[in-house]
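lol so apparently i was supposed to do this last week
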Amino acid sequence: MSAMQRHNEVPAARLLTRVRQCTICAAHLPLGPRPVLQLHPAARILIAGQAPGRKVHDSGVPFDDASGDRLRHWLGLDRPTFYDARRVAILPMGFCYPGTGSSGDLPPRPECAPTWREPLLALLPARRLTIVIGAYALGYHLPSERSGVTSAVLNWREHWPALAVLPHPSGRNNIWLKRNAWFEAELVPVLRKRVAEVLARE
Ligand code: SF4
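anyway here it is w/ iron/sulfur cluster bound
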């Protein structure tokens, strides 16, 4: 771990404590605040996701569901590596379960990213691999990419090797994955190789 990363350990712990006590949008959360995230200043991989679902809210463990199993498969990571905060940071766009509407989970709460994201990202190494999952994370991390997730995934080489845009690994995207079989055939093997390279740099 570099001197800068060591220097950031105490501020990171303090900031995480503040996030875990956050109640900013409690009035809008059907099950109340329960921020689910993972961060250490040494993490060279950042997973920028959407928001916890109900199952993850219950367990308090990010991607502790079928979406997580698929994401780990895409990244070529086992659970111990995926949940090692010194290697992988997991920061959804909204840290708490936002509730469910008529067509699935509601969007991440809009208060969350403007409040917490910038100071948390500032603690991570500048040279990292950012994995952007879904439209909300895409809007934040690549605001110039206005054509949507499918176009951003198709044009993955434009932001490579610092950033990869992925479709959400939810089963709700099975049709997308079937229609875009090149994603798992072409991009996933390259992504796995890149993830392994980044982790080997430690
Ligand atoms: S979603 Fe974010 S802003 Fe809202 S209570 Fe949870 S941590 Fe705070």
